């Protein structure tokens, strides 16, 4: 399977970020990193790699959230009108969830659609 | 947000979400929801909350009930009155199973679900015939 994402040269800091994004998008819990077989996979690719702790990744996740939030804010032109659509439902594991989607016209006149909330209420 | 999912709690939650993105009522145009009554009281409370911050936002003018939801309700009532039922699983159930299948460790559960149903098969039996009949009727009234 081809990878259509840019692959920069190794750098511990960006590797930590890719690791976090990878675990999240594959729906793998962060504590999977304590698994010895998985650690061996990483060490076999690069012996000097430092596998971050769950705490480090949690902090990184908070930073990633702030960055994404700022990026979305930046996308909205100043004073631009936005519309929202929202719905709530109860998941199969009995969590009440509300999701909010925001729509707006970007600087170059394109209709943008951003999810701004997906929260347990 | 904790507590009951009434209009007031939903409105305060929505306000915090909007604040987080630096949005105020002057920037808010439409709010689209389904037709649940709590959503109507939610937009009314939102109007009040905005009024407290001395900015104007009119619930009755800016609240848009979701058109697709209205169509779904109409179709549901239409099919109920004809007594037609879905042949397979509903579209939502099929999608849910698909998602469950993508989560590792839940695969066994979906095999119990029985035969795979795709979207076309989940159309109710005789639905196409009804559509044809309705179309014929329209053609008759137009040209007949």
Brief sketch in words of this structure:
The complex is a heterodimer of chains A (121) and B (144). Chain A is an alpha+beta fold and 121 residues long.
Helix and strand topology:
The complex is a heterodimer of chains A (121) and B (144).
Chain A: H1 12-25, H2 36-45, H3 54-75, E1 82-90, E2 96-105, E3 111-120
Antiparallel strand pairs in A: 1-2, 2-3
Chain B: H1 7-20, E1 28-33, H2 37-52, H3 59-62, E2 63-65, H4 67-82, H5 91-102, H6 107-111, H7 127-143
For this entry, what is the oligomeric state of its chains?
Answer: heterodimer
Counting DSSP E segments of at least 2 residues, the number of strands of chain B comes to 2
Distance between the first and last residues' Cα of chain A: 39 Å
User: What are the low-pLDDT stretches of chain B, counting only 5+ consecutive residues below 50?
Assistant: 105-121
Q: Which regions of chain A are unreliable across 5 or more consecutive residues at pLDDT < 50?
A: none
Please report the two chains with the greatest interface, counting residues with C-beta closer than 8 angstroms to the partner's C-beta. Answer: A-B, 24 and 27 residues
Strand content of chain B: 5-15%
Biggest sheet strand order of chain A reads 1-2-3
Q: Please tally the helical runs of chain B, counting DSSP H or I stretches of 4 or more residues.
A: 7
What is the domain total for the residues of chain B? 2
**Number of continuous helical runs of chain A:** 3
Question: Number of DSSP strands of chain A?
Answer: 3
How far is the first residue's CA from the last residue's CA of chain B? Answer: 60 Å
Backbone structural class of chain B: mainly alpha
Q: Structural class of the helices, strands and pairings of chain A?
A: alpha+beta
The amount of beta strand of chain A, in percent, is 15-25%
Backbone CA Rg of chain B: 22 Å
**Secondary-structure element order of chain B, N to C:** HEHHEHHHH
């Amino acid at each position: 399977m081809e990878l259509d994402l840019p692959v920069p040269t190794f750098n511990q800091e960006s590797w930590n970020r890719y690791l976090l994004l990878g675990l999240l998008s594959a729906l793998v819990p962060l504590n999977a990193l304590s698994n010895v077989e998985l650690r061996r996979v990483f060490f076999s690719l690069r012996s000097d790699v430092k596998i971050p702790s769950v705490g480090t990744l949690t902090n990184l996740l908070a930073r990633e959230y702030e960055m994404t939030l700022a990026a979305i804010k930046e996308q909205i032109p100043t004073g631009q009108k936005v519309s929202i659509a929202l719905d709530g439902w109860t998941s199969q594991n009995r969590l009440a969830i509300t999701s909010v989607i925001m729509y707006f016209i970007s600087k170059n006149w394109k209709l943008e659609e951003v999810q701004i909330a997906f929260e347990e209420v | 947000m904790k507590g009951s999912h009434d209009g007031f709690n939903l409105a305060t939650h929505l306000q915090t979400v909007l604040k987080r993105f630096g949005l105020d009522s002057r920037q808010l145009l439409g709010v689209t929801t389904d037709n649940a009554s709590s959503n109507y009281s939610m937009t009314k409370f939102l109007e009040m909350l905005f009024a407290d911050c001395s900015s104007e936002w009119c619930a009755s003018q800016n609240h848009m009930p979701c058109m697709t939801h209205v169509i779904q309700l109409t179709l549901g009532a239409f099919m109920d009155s004809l007594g037609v039922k879905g042949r397979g699983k509903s579209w939502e159930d099929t999608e849910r199973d698909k998602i469950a299948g993508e989560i590792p460790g839940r695969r066994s559960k979906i095999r119990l679900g029985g035969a795979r149903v795709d979207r076309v098969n989940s159309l109710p039996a005789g639905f196409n015939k009804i559509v044809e009949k309705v179309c014929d009727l329209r053609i008759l009234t137009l040209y007949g």
